[in-house]
Amino acid sequence: MPSDGKGESLDLDVALSHVDGDRELLRELSGIFIEDYPRMLEEMQNSVLGRDHATLERLAHTLKGRLAYFGAAEARGSAADLETMGRERDLAGAWKSLEELDSAMAGVLRELESFCRERIE
Amino acid sequence: MKVLLADDDAFFRLSLRKALCRWGYEVVLASDGTEAWDILQGIDPPRLVILDWMMPGMSGVDICRRIRAQMSDTYSYVILITSRNEKEDVVTALDAEADDYVAKPFDIHELRARLQSGLRIINLQSSLALKQRELFHQATHDSLTGIWNRQAILDILERETAAARAARKPLSAAVVDIDDFKRVNDTFGHVVGDAVLRETVLTMQSALRHFDRIGRYGGEEFVIVMPGVRKGQGLKMAERVRQRVEGHAFDSLPGREGVTLSIGIASDRGAGDPGLLLRSADEALYRAKTRGRNRVEPAAAPPPRERREGRRRLV
Fold first, then answer.
1. Higher-confidence position of A73 and B71
2. Any catalytic annotation for residue B239?
3. pLDDT for B75-131, tens place per residue?
4. Which CATH class is domain B150-309?
5. Can you give the residue ranges of every domain in chain B?
6. Residue from A61, A67, A88, A112 to probe the interface with B (highest B Cβ count within 10 Å)
7. Phi/psi zone of residue B297: left (φ > 0), alpha (ψ -120 to 50 degrees), beta?
8. CB contact under 8 A, A22 and B18
9. What pLDDT, in 10s, does the model give residues A4-37?
10. Which pLDDT score, from 0 to 100, does residue B302 have?
11. B165-178 as b/e: b if 16+ CB within 10 A
């Protein structure tokens, strides 16, 4: 696993460019992201079940922004799809997109966790 | 320089706050649109404003529109941040009169550069506003004595007369002249003359209420506007001014000689004619001069013009 640069699921160079190379800050942000994701996923699932389009749009929007921050292109694409579904109030493909999102997220989380474990040199 | 950072996502607040602090900004955080608007309504709000577009409560675009509609005194430089990056968003942002627009995720160095342009605009606006205040002061004040100049005190008299008429309240105006001022100039020179003018103004001001207005009408002539003051009270106030100056030992005059004033005063209840009021006071001043100076004379009631025309009643 590379400690920085382009990984399978995300691009740490992109992420580092957003924090001006501050690896410690990026670790802190990664920690927030890893911690928040399960709750966000659960809330998105609930909002699809409850046909709460506005909440789905808002959560997917936030997640999309964070994923772009980490250069996680594939997962970001799924989040963007979910945001559009929420905005257009059309949840037909929502479950499929949620599954795609979660499978792409597995790689993102793995790489972020590995980055967080890295010792500060 | 304070900067307001409004974003509902704690992740981005943390990320941006660190960068902004590192660049030397004092960061004020808001976690939704309503909180951001409250901060902007507070005392000495940040003038650099970074707004996330999508926020619960009020969106960044809503806040931007409100800033432009309601905060016209000082300029706020607004940067909208969004992760929507469709072309119509740029149009919407600029329509809401945002100064700049940055799409998430953005290069942090780009944001830094954009904030620096914002700082330049704010500094430019501040120096223009300061210049404007200075120019206004210069245009309305007498440079020697620092009190209102002729045009400004005449404007004030006109406004106060109209206000007094509307509120059916009395108003008095005095015209004041320093006795034998030419002698001061001829004997001691203009430098001393100027100092005497300044000292006379300060002494007169010490005898007036803080909401009375005084302006330099001519060389050694002054106009005092006294809102809410009717005839008897006006005479007493003018007399107090005269006595205060008469009793003052002038630092600026060799031997701490004295200076005296002649004052004409006119009072007006509801007539609302500033020209008439001033002419009446001026005529009274002329009488004070011919009756031996160092005295206060009230305007003749009713004054000559009014008697002639038989229209208005001057109290």
1. A73
2. no
3. 899 999 887 666 677 788 888 889 998 887 777 888 899 999 999 999 999 899 899
4. alpha beta
5. 2-139, 150-309
6. A61
7. beta
8. yes
9. 466 788 999 989 988 888 899 999 999 999 999 9
10. 57
11. beeebbbbbbbbbb
The reply to whether residue A61 touches residue B12, judged by beta carbons under 8 angstroms, is no
Give yes or no for B19 touching A (CB within 8 A): yes
Contact with chain A for residue B14, Cβ under 8 A: yes
**Reported ipTM:** 0.80
Strands B77-82 and B100-103, sheet pairing: parallel
Domains and CATH numbers, chain A: 12-117 (1.20.120.160)
Q: How far is CA B263 from CA A55, A121, B246, in A?
A: 77, 86, 12
Cβ <8 Å between A58 and B56: yes
Closest in B18, B54, B83 to A68, CB measured: B83
Structure tokens at B110: 């780009």
Q: Considering CB atoms only, which of B9, B10, B108 is closest to A17?
A: B108
Nearest to B176 by CA among B122, B211, B212: B212
Structurally, at CATH architecture level, domain B2-139 sits in 3-Layer(aba) Sandwich (3.40)
Distance (Å, whole) CA A34 – CA B44: 38
Q: What is the distance between the alpha carbons of residues B268 and B277, in angstroms, rounded to a whole number? A: 7
Average per-residue pLDDT for chain B: 89
Of B220, B283, B297, B306, catalytic: B220
| Residue B264 burial class via C-beta count within 10 angstroms: exposed 0-12, middle 13-18, buried 19 and up | buried
Q: Does residue B176 contact residue B297 with C-beta atoms inside 8 Å?
A: no
Distance, first Cα to last Cα, chain A? 17
> Taking CB atoms and an 8 Å cutoff, what residues of chain A touch B10?
32
Interface contacts (A, B; CB < 8 Å): 53
Summary count for chain B: helices (H), strands (E): 11, 10
Nearest alpha-carbon partner for B174 in B66, B292, B268? B268
